[in-house]
Fold this sequence. Notes:
The complex is a heterodimer of chains A (247) and B (321).
Chain A: E1 2-6, E2 9-11, E3 19-20, E4 25-26, E5 33-35, H1 37-53, E6 58-65, H2 70-79, E7 83-88, H3 94-108, E8 112-116, H4 127-135, E9 139-149, E10 152-159, E11 162-169, E12 172-176, H5 188-194, E13 199-202, E14 211-217, E15 226-227, H6 233-242
Parallel strand pairs in A: 1-6, 1-8, 6-7, 7-13, 8-12, 9-12
Antiparallel strand pairs in A: 2-5, 3-4, 9-10, 10-11
Helix pairs in contact in A: 2-5, 3-4
Chain B: E1 2-7, E2 9-10, E3 13-14, H1 16-31, E4 35-41, E5 56-62, H2 72-86, E6 90-94, H3 97-109, E7 113-118, E8 129-134, E9 139-145, E10 150-154, E11 169-172, E12 182-189, E13 201-205, H4 216-225, E14 228-231, H5 233-237, E15 258-262, H6 268-274, E16 279-284, E17 297-300, H7 303-318
Parallel strand pairs in B: 1-4, 1-6, 4-5, 5-11, 6-10, 7-10, 13-14, 13-15, 15-16, 16-17
Antiparallel strand pairs in B: 2-3, 8-9
Helix pairs in contact in B: 2-3, 4-7
Amino acid sequence: MKILVCISKTPDTTAKISFTDNDTKFNESGVQFIINPYDEWYALVRAIELKEKDPSTIIHLVHVGPAENDAIIRKALALGGDEAFRINSHPGDDYYVAGQIVNLAKEQHYDLIFTGKETIDYNGSSVGGMIAEFLELPYISLATKFELNGNTATITREIEGGEEVDEAALPIVVSCQKGMAEQRIPNMRGIMSARTKPLKAIEPVAIDPLTSISSFELPAPKQGVKMIPADNPEELVRLLHEEAKVF
Amino acid sequence: MSVLVFLDQAEGHVKKSSFEAASFAAKIAEQTGTEANGIVLGEVKDDLQSLGKYGIKKIYHAADAQLNQFDDEIYTALIADTVKSSGSNVVVLSNNFNGKAIAPRLSVRLKSGLISGAVGLPDTSNGFKVKKSVFSGKAFANVEIKTDIKIITLNANAFKVTEGSGTATIENITTQIPRRKVNVREVNVVKGEVPLAEAELVVSGGRGLKGPENWGIVTDLAKALGAATACSRPVSDSGWRPHHEHVGQTGLTIAPNMYFAIGISGAIQHLAGVNRSKTIVVINKDPEAPFFKAADYGIVGDAFEVVPKITEAVKKLKGQK
């Protein structure tokens, strides 16, 4: 059993979002970077749990990014995983990133490819589906539970107003979200062993991104809050009905 | 040259989010001097001709029972074939659960750029740029698609449904349906609840409610308003509410007409998931709660006293008993 977990780097969830260079670049100054929470808490931890059940499981991590991102990959290795690959390139767009990962997957033949449901910066929710299409594999998106029985996976995925239970034979691609696993904190042993785990930088293949970001903008600030006294909640209902016209 | 919109159905009925996508597609067609067509997969109970009122000229319909149940790989194959046979150069889908599964596949299959989570119409004055939500609702990016075919998924409640008077023509498509690789064993949908992702009104509760046994004030108000219910992350982490109700940076991002927050302080991660809501109401006993800064209306007070009175006032106004 061989699992690939795709890891992205994102700004911390509390980061203040601003832009530089005429609103064309994210302002990284003073921003802490983390492993994309969906990749870490759900995709990676679920893969580690599967390895704990079946120790013969091999977990590979892949990240598309420059050398400075090695620290993020080591952090992921401290949680678990046997070996990591960094595709030495700036992630162009979803299509570019998916294509690079597919190139690795074609050599390594994974039984399972896990991604987070989306990155918390670009919110594309696309890389998993793209990998599946490139490799002509089934794709279970927005999974909240994953169980394995031999070569068959039983996966619960979120749908409008509920959930669906699916069954598919490996190999498959799964995008993971809340419910898949519980967040973990790396222990000292994990942190020490992560230092010596193999982290290979590989050169990217030539792929042209299909999209590019031309500029960013921030939402218009709110006009200011209208406070209503606690002893007159009927006034709030009147305002919502007559002024905001929400119902 | 035309615009093709995927009209998603569940249990034989076209979804509300698809009406938004259809209106959006029709507007793009108008902007670019072409026409908008739709594709429906599976048997439907609705009158598809009436979708013409959203500006759709023709509906490609594959009314095969094998398509009633969603499958991203099969749906992608049929949509991609229709994009090619109809000569469409813009493809529109809803950025919902199904759209998120199909759109990336389409992008690879058609080798065409995808913009997911669009919040406005394309700017075609210089290239083809679409504004999308990024940083979990904290900002927007204007993204350019460089390929001939453009794929866009539209965020829920980001584009107003516009109704006119047209009638769509129906073209039945019959095709070889690929083998299903994923077997759906169970579908569990909570009946009678408003799906949170596309709800127009949302009532949400936080830690300030102190425990799951107190959720009655949230659900009563939601019921009176016809709203969906949601919660903050600590509430879903503590198991007080199911995790599909969690809105915020690591939960669902929503943009309803009204977001009504009860006992939620408004941490930055929570705001990220809801700050595109048109009207935000905050009830909190702490006047310093950061949520008031992001709100349109606020009451500083005890939720257990204030909220039931609001529910009564709503019922009275709507003539409910």
